Automatic annotation (TrEMBL):
Mg(2+) 1 binds at E100, D120, L122. This is Fructose-1,6-bisphosphatase class 1. It comes from Hymenobacter guriensis. Belongs to the FBPase class 1 family. Its cofactor is Mg(2+). It is an enzyme of class 3 (hydrolase). It is found in: Cytoplasm. GO terms for molecular function: fructose 1,6-bisphosphate 1-phosphatase activity. The gene is fbp. Keywords: Carbohydrate metabolism, Cytoplasm, Hydrolase, Magnesium, Metal-binding.
Length: 341
């Protein structure tokens, strides 16, 4: 390729331009959702910077023991929480935030804001200190209460089907932001020297089936019958076991390659571990938009009515055929349980 040809190549689509173009598809859009997504992307860049230097923070003097806010010595999940909340508060489009890191709803003070955001600011916390991929997960809902007042619990406790946008950031061998507004899924890769996300994975579609299963098999003594048998089935099929322990990273891999991720109910934890509002709903919206499926073993995740902010639910997500297969095994278990009663 000549230099002339190279110069004629497009520079690539930045996230900002992509969001702007999408907004033009909706003539009456006011641009608030676009701005909200840009706020999240900005916070993601800041968190990405903190993560990249996290190994240096304890080295005396390398980055100073504290910054002006005195934050450097806090754990990264607390820092990420502060960064995202601050970006969303400054943006002005969000009236209320619910975060995995905070017991109660956070009122931003922007009573005119039309949106509420549910966020897991730092997912995969056990991997923070060991240089393994971690992430951020977010869901955006339109408030149901009138503007001009503080957001309410009703604004937050909406089913996943009401999400207007959802996404995740993966801080991995490269940093990516993947999101949907209900019209397909697009992925952007961060170019650190330019400080921009570029469209790198347009129209992500997930394979209908796959050969990867992801579950914490250390818990297998506590698995119920259906899960145990489905895992045995995966082994019979010679599927590969892959489990990073960061939901975002496990999900992202399976989304692109095909596979199933499971965090089931166990004998000790009847609702599993993962949180409906901060983790399951957002990834379910994305997987469905990419042609995959998400279930609690019986029902579509996005139709589950949350009762409380921090509630958990069993989670089976990934390629449609594999999730349906897991549901078959779970249905057998539930049928047997019903017979025994
Ligand atoms: P978080 O760091 O936000 O609390 O989430 C941790 C979650 C999820 O990322 C991961 O898939 C799962 O916990 C791992 O749990 P186990 O260690 O029990 O397998
Ligand atoms: Mn998490
Ligand atoms: Mn978290």
């Amino acid at each position: 390729m000549t230099l002339h040809d190279k110069l004629a190549l497009p520079v690539g689509t930045t996230l900002d331009r992509f969001i702007m173009r999408k907004q033009e598809d909706f003539p009456y859009a006011t641009g608030e959702l676009s701005q909200l997504l840009r706020d999240i992307a900005l916070a993601a860049k800041i968190v990405n910077r903190e993560i990249n230097r996290s190994g240096l923070i304890d080295i005396a003097g390398a980055y100073g023991n504290r910054n002006v806010q005195g934050e450097d010595q806090q754990k990264l999940d607390v820092i990420a929480n502060i960064r995202f909340i601050r970006a969303l508060r400054n943006g002005g489009e969000v009236c209320t935030i619910v975060s995995e890191e905070d017991e109660d709803m956070i009122q931003t003070g922007n009573v005119q804001g039309k949106y509420v955001v549910a966020i897991d600011p730092l997912d995969g916390s056990s991997n923070i200190d060991v240089n393994v991929s971690i992430g951020t997960i977010f869901s955006v809902y339109r408030r149901v209460s009138p503007t001009g007042t503080e957001g309410t619990e009703q604004d937050c406790l909406q089913t996943g089907t009401h999400q207007v946008a959802a996404g995740y950031v993966i801080y991995g061998s490269s940093t990516m932001l993947v999101y949907t507004t209900g019209n397909g899924v697009n992925g952007f890769t961060y170019e650190p020297s330019l400080g921009e996300f570029f469209l790198s994975h347009p129209h992500i579609t997930s394979p209908q089936t796959g050969a990867i299963y992801s579950i914490n098999e250390g818990l297998s003594n506590d698995f119920t019958e259906g899960v145990r048998e489905f895992v045995a089935y995966c082994k019979q099929q010679n599927y590969s076991a892959r489990y990073i322990g960061s939901l975002v990273a496990d999900f992202h891999r399976n989304l692109l390659k095909g596979g199933i991720y499971m965090y089931p109910a166990t004998r000790r934890a009847a609702k599993g571990k993962l949180r409906l509002m901060y983790e399951c709903n957002a990834l379910s919206f994305i997987v469905e938009q990419a042609g995959g499926k998400a279930s609690n073993g019986q029902q579509r995740i996005m139709e589950l009515q949350p009762q409380t902010l921090h509630e958990r639910c069993p989670f089976f997500i990934g390629s449609t055929e594999l999730v349906e297969k897991a549901e078959e095994f779970m249905a057998r278990e539930y049928a047997e349980l019903a017979e025994q009663k």
